[in-house]
Design a protein that fits this description.
By secondary structure, the protein is of the alpha/beta class. Helix content is 39%, strand content 24%. Strand 11 and strand 12 form a beta hairpin. Helix 3 packs across helix 4. It is globular. Bound molecules: zinc ion. The site of zinc ion (ZN) has 5 residues, from loops.
Length: 260
């Protein structure tokens, strides 16, 4: 599979706790709150895991801990990771703010096959007319986004399977089914039964990068792993595949910021 890596929180009995963390007291016993102490909230999920783990997602700190972990153990652990949190959290908060501030309006440009195209209001069926995303007038930003997604899905359902069959032919491979889904965290995936899935979001990438993802999934029909043998198949078909992996990372960041 090719992961898009857009983090989505899994809420399993989340408990919100207030936690005071002071950089001056990191790694020591919790001090009495003073004006220097900054307050930090985290969500705690207790599961059957063996160790405590921290995640920074969507501008928030998430803690996963074993059932038996005490509050003291958890907060001591958080303190020990203060440097990491102080590096990651502000960036994540900043991205979350951008995400919340992002809205789509008529006249804005959206990505399709690596090119920017304006959203315009037009009568009749919503469609992409090879130049513009044509949508009804009078929609609010959320409706504009939802309507654009409908257009993206329509294009993805035609483009991606067709292109997959073309590339499969050149590689002498036969996928069982090719489907388009709404996955956030994977650009594409391939099952052991030979079923290939692509996220409609992939249609925003440039054609060469899309070809890389398609080739990657098709290569899994031969090698159901990410072994050197697998990468040799990919490299043989797409010598500069590493460049496309970079493009996907950049696209993933953009999509996360725009909350697609
Ligand atoms: Zn893969």
């Amino acid at each position: 599979m090719v992961g898009a890596g857009i983090a989505r929180p899994i809420s399993v009995g989340t408990i919100i706790l207030g936690c005071t963390v002071s950089s001056a007291y990191m790694g020591r016993a919790m001090p009495a709150p003073t004006s220097e102490v900054t307050s930090m909230e985290y969500t705690l999920t207790k599961t059957n895991r063996k160790t405590i783990a921290l995640y920074v997602r969507n501008g928030k700190l998430e803690v996963k801990a074993p059932q038996r972990a005490t509050k003291k153990q958890i907060e001591t652990f958080i303190h020990s990771k203060a440097d990491w949190i102080n590096e990651k959290l502000p960036k994540s908060i900043n991205q979350q703010q951008k995400r919340e501030a992002f809205t789509l309006n008529y006249g804005d440009n959206v990505l399709l096959l690596g090119q920017l195209h304006p959203i315009i209001s037009a009568q009749g069926k919503l469609k992409f007319d090879n130049q513009n995303f044509c949508i009804p007038q009078g929609l609010n930003p959320q409706q504009i986004k939802d309507t654009c997604i409908k257009i993206y899905r329509t294009i993805a359902k035609e483009y991606l399977p067709n292109r997959t069959l073309e590339i499969a032919k050149t590689m002498n491979l036969n996928p069982t089914t090719i489907k388009i889904n709404g996955a956030y965290t994977r650009w594409g995936s391939c099952s052991s039964l030979g079923n290939i899935n692509f996220s409609w979001r992939l249609i925003m990438a440039n054609p060469e990068t899309i070809d890389y993802v398609i080739t990657h999934e098709l290569a899994h029909l031969q090698e159901m792993n990410h072994s050197p043998k697998f990468w040799a198949i990919v490299e043989n078909a797409i010598p500069n595949y590493k460049q496309h992996k970079q493009h996907l990372k950049q696209l993933q960041k953009r999509l996360a910021t725009e909350n697609w």
